[in-house]
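User: Could you check the structure of this?
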Amino acid sequence: MNIFLTGASGFLGTALLRDLLLKGHSVTALVRPRHGTTVRHYLGCRLSEYDPELPLNKYLDKTLHVANGDVSHKNFGLNAKEYLHYANSADILIHNAATTVLDTDWKVYEQINIGGTREAIKFASHTRQKSIVQTSSAYVAGDRTDTVYEDQLDLAVGFRNNYERSKAISESDVRNAGATEGIRFMILRPSIIIGDTQSGRMSEDHHLFNFILRLFWARQMIYKRLNASRTQHDDRFRILGNVDVTKNFIPVDYVAHLISILIETKGAWGKSFHLTHPHPIRLGTLGTYIQRAMDWPGFTLCPMETTKDLSPLERRFFRTIKIYEQYFWDEPTFDQSQLKAVLGKRLTNPSPISQEAVNRLVRFVLEKFQSRKNIR
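Assistant: Sure, the predicted C-alpha cells are below.
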C-alpha cells in the first residue's frame, strides 16, 4: 500500500515506520520541523537509533518519502499542491501523531490531539480508500476499574487527566466520521508502551523512562548521604502504590507488529482493538524487578497510610511523580475479544514483563543517566 503516516518520528511511529518499510509498503512520513536540522535528516537519525541495521539508503526517496508538516496546522501545514498530491496518492492514512504529555494546558490537547485528528479525518477523505487508522489509547476508559470492551467509548466517564479526555474525544470524532461521512476507520488502543523487546530502547521523553530516571537521581542522593555520614544507615526509599493492582505494559515492537498486520486485514476495518498485554504485571512484582535491576535493596512500594511517615526526599519525589501516581492504585481489565476474533492464529502473545525485560529497560535508562550525569 501507499501509506501516509503522521507521528513517524515518535516512539511508536519510528518502530511502526520500520515495520511498514520492511513489509514492502511505500510510506510518506509527516515530520514536524525541528530547529537546526531537516526533517529528512531527523527522521533518518530516529530510524537509525531504533534499528542501526536498517539500510536507510535502500528506502529513502524510493519507498520512503518525508513531508515537512505539522498535524496541528490546517492541511497539516502543507501547501495546497502538496496536500492534494500526498492525499490523492495515499491509500490510507495512519494517524499516529499526538502529544502524550499528561499535565499540560488543555489548549495544547485541543490543538494537537483533537485538532490534529480532525485534520487527519479531512485528509483521509481525500485518500484513495478514504481510510484512517487512528492510534488511540486503552486509557480512553478513564477511571473505570471493571472490564472494558473494545467497542465501548463513553465520554461521560471520569478521566484521570486531560490527555485521556483528549484521546477519547479524538476517537469519538473518528467514529462519527465513519458513521456520517463514509470514512473507513480502524481504532487502535495500546496500553502503556514500553521499550523494545530486544534492546529496551525507549524515547527519552517516555513516561517510564522519566520515572526510572528520577529513581536513579533519588538513589544517587541517598547513597551519597550514606557514604558521607560514615555511619550505618539503611537505603530505604518508599513509593506509594497498591502492590496488587496490575499495570498493562506492552513492548513497542509488538504494538508496531500488530498494527502492520491489522492494516492488511479486511475484517479489521470498522472495529476497535485493545493492543494490550493479556497478562499484565502486578505493581508489586514490577517494584521487585526494579529493585533488583537497580541493585537497590531499600526500594519498596507501600500503601497510602504510610504518607505521614515519608522522609523529606520521599515526599519530594512523590510530588514530582504526582501525575504518574494516579495510575498506581487501580486499573481496568482490557478485553481483547475483537482482536482475537479478527487475527485468530496470527495473534501471538507478547513477551512477558519479566525480570530480564525490566533489566533491559533499566540498563537503557542507566546509560542515559550516566551520560547526563557526566554532562552536568
